[in-house]
């Protein structure tokens, strides 16, 4: 299910006729529309020199979480740890910021440019424990492709 999306991600990234923000939006839309358990897909980026993340392009229900301090929630923890964070059940997480009562699981994968964590891709799922190693590897691939245009 994930592998067939790789060439589509590459095609979006390599389409230089489209501005970067729109390409990121297209990636969010593609993932949400083609992976049944990806109910919210978005990018967060380091907000200048501040120790916080700012919401970038996303696909799914609107969120109030447009700014997330480093260390807060799953996204904020990944900003500090520089490591993937898979949450099978958000109810079991102490440091979780609820975006929607429907969200059951989350996966966040950091986005590196020249070795620096400049943001992340964040996926929320309304299904408990849907993410596995394939999702992590696929999202790492997505971020490596995205890093080429940032």
Summarize the biggest pleated sheet. 6 strands, antiparallel
Number of strands: 6
Q: Unreliable runs, pLDDT <50, ≥5 residues?
A: none
Counting H and I runs of at least 4 residues, what is the number of helices? 4
Binned, the helix content reads 25-40%
Oligomer: single chain
* C-alpha Rg (nearest Å): 14 Å
Adjacency order of strands in the biggest sheet: 3-2-1-6-5-4
Element order: H for helix, E for strand:
HHEEEHEEEH
In whole angstroms, the N-to-C terminal distance is 27 Å
Strand content: 25-35%
Mean pLDDT: 96
Assign the structural class, choosing from mainly alpha, mainly beta, alpha/beta, alpha+beta, or little secondary structure: alpha+beta
Task: Note the overall shape.
Answer: globular
What does this structure look like?
- This protein is α+β, with helices and mostly antiparallel strands and 150 residues long.
- Helix content is 32%, strand content 27%.
- It has helices spanning 6-14, 20-34, 73-81, 133-147; strands at 40-46, 52-59, 67-69, 85-87, 105-113, 116-125.
- It has a six-stranded antiparallel sheet, with helices on both faces.
- Strand 2 and strand 3 (67-69) form a beta hairpin.
- Helix 1 packs antiparallel against helix 2 and helix 1 (6-14) packs parallel to helix 4.
- The radius of gyration is 14 Å and the shape is globular.
- It starts with 5 loop residues before the first helix and ends with a helix.
- The model has no long low-confidence stretch (mean pLDDT 96).
